[in-house]
Amino acid sequence: MEGVLWKWTNYWNGWQTRWFVLENGILSYYKSQEEVIQGCKGSVKVSVCQINVNNIDNTRLDLVIPGQQHMYLRAPSPQDRQKWLVALGSAKACVESIIEFKGAGYEDSLTHKKSELHLYCDLLMQQVHAVKSAANTEDGPDVQKISDASSLLTATCDTFIRTLEDIMKLMSNATSITNSVPFEMPVPHIAINKNSSNTSKTTSNKNLLPARSTSQENR
């Protein structure tokens, strides 16, 4: 998969467009599509990243390598973000499926899968809320928005189920090697509260910008 994403560089330059390419489990970015032949500006292995979504900005997705690097990204639209999230999640699944289910490898795989499940659970709650909002507009149901939101919801449900199946396989294959690992279904982090909408607007601007981090590159 490839396409344009906005990448946070620093507080001086802010968000800058970059051309991203996801191939063979590697996410690389270039200054533009025309400059691909000049070499990438940076790359990261998807398998070692945690994928986070922003609960306020529905175009944001953040890639985090614990203790090392943060890559803050924005997609052109919520639909584009959904496509990237599914593609990135699938890339992680392909890489992790060949890891031997023993020792730290098994535990790391299960941790990543549980993190993905939390991610998709949050996305499901966002998209269910989008469908409800489109169905309850003052002028009547917005059919186009309902259709778009339902399409995203279907894709997320499929990915959620596949990830859950991967977790079940991991735990099943590891029973003969390690003790059973307790697993809890993720609880969505999103709480929809109409009465708190005014308060959330006052804090949303602060949450939209990434925190200061020495790991950000000016490119």
Automatic annotation (TrEMBL):
Q: Record's InterPro entries?
A: Boi1/Boi2-like, PH-like_dom_sf, PH_domain
Coiled-coil spans are none
- Classification via PROSITE patterns: PH_DOMAIN
Q: Know the name of this protein?
A: Pleckstrin proteiny domain-containing family A
Pfam families in alphabetical order: PH
Region of interest: Disordered: 192-219
GO BP terms, alphabetized: endosome organization; receptor recycling; retrograde transport, endosome to Golgi
Q: What is its main location?
A: Golgi
Q: How does it sit in the membrane?
A: Peripheral membrane protein
Q: Which SMART domains match?
A: PH
Residue ranges with Low complexity bias? 193-207
Q: Which GO terms describe its cellular component?
A: cytosol; early endosome; membrane; recycling endosome; trans-Golgi network
Q: In which compartments does the protein localize?
A: Golgi apparatus, trans-Golgi network membrane; Membrane
Question: Which organism encodes this protein?
Answer: Danaus plexippus plexippus
Keywords from the UniProt entry:
Golgi apparatus, Membrane, Phosphoprotein
